[in-house]
Write a structure and sequence with these properties.
single chain; 76 residues; mainly alpha; two-stranded parallel ribbon; 3 helices; 2 strands; 41% helix
Length: 76
């Protein structure tokens, strides 16, 4: 939790929350990516990112490649 607290307290960090465009974006990502099961959570993350203009995600999770508009950059 200390690492998360440090990250969130950074002046350049922003915590993103779903807004008005979240559900339409999520529906589109689920449909376009043929998302089912556990991948729905990844689609939610991608939808919140896209809603706020965050188009690049740093992750080792290759499943994010399925979401149009999201660029995946590996960590490490």
């Amino acid at each position: 939790m200390r690492a998360i607290d440090d990250l969130v307290s950074s002046p350049s960090a922003r915590v993103l929350f779903p807004g008005r465009r979240f559900l339409p974006l999520l529906r589109g990502l689920v449909h376009e990516g043929a998302v089912r099961g556990n991948l729905v959570f990844d689609a939610q993350v991608a939808a919140v990112c896209l809603e706020h203009g965050a188009t690049t995600i740093l992750t080792q999770d290759k499943d994010f490649h399925r979401f149009p508009g999201i660029t995946v950059r590996g960590i490490g």
